[in-house]
Amino acid sequence: MTLYGETQPPADDRPTVKVTAVRWPDDEPEPPAAAAPGGSPGRPSRRLRILLAAGVTTVVLGAVAGVGVYAYAGDVPRGTSVLGTELGGRSRTDAIRDLHTELGRAGTLTAPLRVTVGERTVEVKPADVGLTMDVEATVDAAARTPAHPVSRLVGSRTVAPVVTVDDARLDAALRKAAGDQIREWTVPAIIFTGTTPKPVRPKFGRALDPQRSAQAVRDGWLTGQPVTVPLVETQPATTDEEVSRLVAELARPAVAAPVTLRTPKGSVTIPPAAIAWSLRFTADDSGKLTPRIDVKRLRSALGDKLGAIEVEPRDARMTVTGGKPTPVDGRAGQQLDATALSRDLLAVLPRTDDRTVTGQLKETQPEVTTAKLAGLGIKERVSRFTTHFTGGLSSPRSQNIVQVAKEVDGTVVLPGETFSLNGHTGERGYDQGYQDAPVILDGKLVPGVGGGVSQFTTTLFNATYYAGLEDVEHKPHSYWFSRYPAVIESTIFWPNLDFRFRNNTTHGVLIDTSHTASSVTVSIWSTKIYDSVKTEYGPRRGVTSPKTIHLDAGPSCIPSNGIDGFTQDAFRIIKKDGKVLKREKFTWRYLAEPRYICGG
């Protein structure tokens, strides 16, 4: 070793290392020391100390280098394990492979998980709820920390697995497991029986919190212990005390006396019954109860009283003249300002005196104008369907068919809108011009108001069906009648059975109806967008024969010859540009209509 500033010893074959001289903390000039007995100095010479320092430094640096190589070998720090599998010192690729192997060997990821929900414990299969371990993300987490070499060298550490679960599927499985332990809260309300307010008291509910449930399962899945998922209590924002206050301070005083409505065209008395009908207490999603006046219901309750004050706007309409659809102008109306009336009426209802509000009339434009109709593309007939009836126009059944056809005639369905036959006509009763005619009730024909409307429903359904419009709701009859096409037909009954279709085109749809003494026809006018719409039938199957049933003779007994029952498929084939665009399947099972005999 060569030291600058010292006499060089004889040369040898060892490598030469240059060391810069350093000053030790106590390296100060001092007088020569007396030699110890035997000729040795009393303390190491400066040269010897430098040699020792250089040697120690070399050893330490070598050791640190060795420690670094050991500590940083692989991507995962030494002493790191996941679920009992040692991953320390492995590359990321090897760690992923080894962890997959160990988990597969132990069956850890496929074993059912025991979950306790309230008082019930069930087993949940991980695959059913999307419960899985992200091995790659887990190894990434294991490789990230710690960064300090001493931490990577000394001790051991366990890294938690990264677990994922499908929250929606887990919540559905847990709700099924919880059963009747889950109960919805009772939404608070105030309803009127006549003019008597009746409070509906809020009640607590019990529910699952999907986020908390998912977190509990993620945390506890691979611990080897059952997981407890909490059921939480839920309650509406409006308390029982608040419901009582609303009854005492608003609902009861509201119907204690009439309210006078003054307008520029005269005054109207609003009786307590009309107030009760229009005063609504509505709860939002949080269960908060808010009172409001439903002006539409108020108008209905006042009936003709507003006839001398308000003029209802009339929409523009379409009529078919000379085989061509033509818009007909509507008119503007004058109606009470609904927003102001609702606000002002609600303000006076708690009072015992000075129960007067002033209503302001404002011009109301029709929703549908001739300009709007002209731009809807209603220009040609795209479908037409006719059904036939017997008895002439004098029979009650025929008169019902004609009545409903007149109510629907001229209706325009805008693009994207859904037409409801029940919603359009409302309840069909004697006051609306309908009469008693045979209807199917509890499997047999009996007299009922509005009998025959189902024939118009079938006619309208087929017209929209062959126009390619979207079927939203329809239900065929229980029995098949030869006057209707099998499967492609529909009944109706207020209010439970409806017929609805959606205008799924970008053009308006006009419903045009007509009738003769023995038939009713519905035409759909719009812009033709399909080449053709046809029906292909499958064979009838599962044919059953009718049985004979004797009924007591009387005016309510209607005899029948009986009809076979069967199941059949019908396919709507829609073509455009010479290709099949849609093929929709309709299937129905008809019951065998019994042969009813009156008396005997």
Automatic annotation (TrEMBL):
Pfam families associated with the record? PG_binding_4, VanW
**Region Disordered: start-end pairs:** 1-44
Domain of life, per lineage: Bacteria
Domain (YoaR-like putative peptidoglycan binding) spans 250-357
On whether Membrane is a keyword of this UniProt record, the answer is yes
Which InterPro entries has this protein been placed in? Answer: Glycopeptide_resist_protein (IPR052913), Vancomycin_resist_VanW (IPR007391), YoaR-like_PG-bd (IPR022029)
Per the record's keyword annotation, is Magnesium included, yes or no? no
Please provide the record's keywords in A-Z order: Membrane, Transmembrane, Transmembrane helix
What parts of the sequence cross the membrane? 50-73
What PANTHER family does this protein map onto? EXPORTED PROTEIN, EXPORTED PROTEIN-RELATED
- The molecule here is called VanW family protein
